[in-house]
Amino acid sequence: MAQAVEEALEKRRHLIIEAGTGTGKTLAYLVPAIRSGKRVIISTGTKNLQEQLFYKDIPFLEQALFPNGEAKLKVCYMKGRGNYLCRKKLYDLTDQPVLSGLEEIEQYRAIAAWEKTSETGDRAELTDLPEASALWHKLDARADTCLGQKCSSWEKCFITEMHRKAAESDIIIVNHHLFFADLAIKQQSENAPDAGILPEAGAVIFDEAHELEDVAGSYFGVSVSNGRFEELCRDVEASAQRNHMYTPQLSGAIKSVRERAAFFFALLPAGDNRFAFENRREFLEENGDEFLGLQQSVTRLSSELENIPSKPEEVFNFCRRAQELQVQLSFLMESEDRNTVFWIERRRGGREKMNLFLQATPIDVAPILKSCLFDQLECAVLTSATLAVGGEFGYIRRRLGLEHARDSVLPSHFDYQSQAMLYVPPDLPDPRTPQFAVKAAERIRKLLEITRGRAFVLFTSYAQMNDIYQRLLGELEFPLLLQGSAPKTALLEEFRLTPNAVLFATSSFWQGVDVQGDQLSCVIIDRLPFAVPSDPVVAARLRAIEAEGGNAFFQYQVPAAVITLKQGFGRLIRSLHDRGLLVLLDNRILKKAYGRVFVESLPNYRRTTDLNQVGEFFGVQECK
User: In this predicted model, what pLDDT tens digit does every residue of 85-110 receive, in sequence order?
Assistant: First the structure.
């Protein structure tokens, strides 16, 4: 793998490489990246992998390559701006604290003390700060409140320092969200050379590259929520009080935006979670006055802000944010872009508050990525344990617009025949039928008794997870853990430390989770992980493929499900000494023609449909 990456870097070409678990992917791309003499950005799918690269792999290579300390690698680890403290906001709050409750006051004191000694401003250093801290949101360095070089704290700003460090680094470690947020900003600000946060690089290596389409789609789309209007009003109010700029006119303009936004979002079609906004034209015909009223109220707010004499710099930022909201709302309501799906999402916020998001997502990101990423880069390396479908890369090439690239599948060195058994019960009902949950719960109980717990039970939906968890509660002697009952990291730690534990979980535990040894000896998956066809983005992509004469099921749904299934099963065998059972409770993989694509894409596990053979694998003589 290292030779293939080195060749791609030297010859300035793109490379797609699937390397099975345990290959040593990170070392295989880090060594040629270091030897290349180029600045290389490494983009990962998870924070865990970022931390592994920065705190473990790179120090290890530094020692191995430069044992006498004769050279020091220049490496920078970057996260999204929301992870960093904004010093100006902290200082502003010192002068005029707007804190609610004792908890926020204590958090504020802790943050103020930490700011004096922190070199990075990264909130990860604040181990006692709750994940859902409302105060942090008032103090973070989000781009929409940043004044840039005109800020009074610009010189000592943590973001400025990170920018400087990145410009001096040979290797920059980011995650996909930051990479594509940066790329989207640069696309929108073509005339501003300093836009974005990442410096130019000779190459980009995407690890966990199977996630690129979804992440890129979210950053090349548009999203406007009722919360953004409220945040703008709140920020203007705080600034007006702090800088003694409050006038009856400004107060009236803020009140008008609040009322108009609340009224407009209340008129949006009703629905659960995520659903398509198909009747935008009819909606505007009926509610055009309310849409125009909201836009006019934002214009009025901008005018009042512009009329403030000798105004502080942040007021110009409020005007920019107001204009951005207007432009984006116009696009969401009036655009006829054929490559965009428009949809609505309802998310429950704190204190039973409903947050509504108007969304626009590109249906096909391939042309965007081709023109603004792959055509611009000298070398892109895409790697993951799960990129190929049936040994081919046609799916990932099509979805990402990566036409000209070498590719390679490198098998894992694990002995899957002896280390892992795949069991598919032939007698369970179709997972889409009402009878499935009862039978599946009973079969899971038998399997967990054979494996003595030590299992992940992974589901494609929260409803199915909760249903089967409830059915098995009290039926098993093992500790049962449920996703959502504690933060993900805490649940994983509890699983690792609790003998014979069983974790019931959904999508976020299908990838980026590493538990080695006997503690995890079984992974059970409820059904083939096809994307929900009613999801507005999935549905639009299926329609687009069919409209071009393709077969959406075989070109999109099956390959996407294959990659997800490979990710889920990849949780089990993480080292040469791991051994265990993989279970798919969905026997469509045996009965349907498309099942062969799944089977041919999986490693060469020992396979069985006989529960007694599962028992023998674990040394259990008879399975009832």
Answer: 999 888 887 766 566 677 788 888 88
Residues 533 and 596 in one domain: yes
Do residues 406 and 437 both lie within one domain?
Answer: no
Of 205 and 128, the structure prediction assigns the larger pLDDT to 205
Q: How far is C-alpha 433 from the chain's CA centre?
A: 31
Share of the chain above pLDDT 70, in %: 97
Mean pLDDT estimate for the chain: 90
State the burial class of residue 266 (Cβ atoms within 10 Å of its Cβ: 0-12, 13-18, 19+): exposed
pLDDT value of residue 195: 65
CA distances from 157 to 75, 149, 150, 175, 185 (A): 20, 10, 12, 22, 20
Q: Is 293 helix (H, G, I), strand (E, B) or coil?
A: helix
The dihedrals phi and psi of 360, each to the nearest 5 degrees, come to: -135, 125
Q: Residue range 500-529: average pLDDT?
A: 90
Cβ neighbours of residue 145 closer than 8 Å, sequence gap 6 or more: 86, 89, 235, 314, 317
Instruction: Work out how many domains the chain is built from and give that number.
Output: 4
CA-based angle 138:141:145, to the nearest 5? Answer: 75
**622 within domain boundaries:** no
- Check whether residue 137 and residue 198 sit in a common domain: no
Q: Say if residue 508 is in the same domain as residue 558.
A: yes
Domain containing 497 — which CATH number?
3.40.50.300
Strand partners, 140: 85
Name the residue with tokens 């999935």: 538
Instruction: Mark whether 276 and 244 lie in a shared domain.
Output: yes
Q: Which two tokens stand for residue 272?
A: 């659960």
Length of the chain: 624
311, 238 Cβ separation under 8 angstroms = no
Which whole-number Å values give the CA distances from 595 to 395, 435, 527, 564, in the listed order?
17, 22, 12, 14
CA dist., res. 458 & res. 197, Å (int): 37
Strand 274-276 to 340-348 pairing: antiparallel
122 and 13 in one domain?
no
| pLDDT of res. 370 | 95
Q: Tokens 């980026």 sit at which residue?
A: 512
Q: How far apart are CA 581 and CA 588, in angstroms?
A: 19
| Cα–Cα dist 269/280, whole Å | 10
Q: Residue 224: which H helix or E strand, with range?
A: strand 222-225
Query: Based on the number of CB atoms within 10 Å of its own CB, is 127 exposed (0-12), middle (13-18) or buried (19 or more)?
Result: exposed
Query: What residues contact 548, with CB distance under 8 A and at least 6 apart?
Result: none
Model confidence over 104-147: pLDDT tens digits?
888 888 899 999 999 999 988 888 888 778 888 888 888 777 88
| Beta-bridge partner residues of 498 | none
Which residues have a Cβ under 8 Å from the Cβ of 581 and sit 6 or more positions away? 420, 421, 423, 447, 450, 451, 521, 522, 523, 572, 614, 617, 618
Q: What is the mean pLDDT of residues 578-589?
A: 95
Per-residue pLDDT reduced to its tens digit, 525-564: 999 999 989 999 999 999 999 999 999 999 999 999 999 9
Up-side HSE of residue 278: CA atoms within 13 Å toward CB?
A: 9
Task: Record the pTM.
Answer: 0.89
Amino acid identity of residue 10, one-letter, is E
Which residues are bridge partners to 481 per DSSP?
Answer: 503
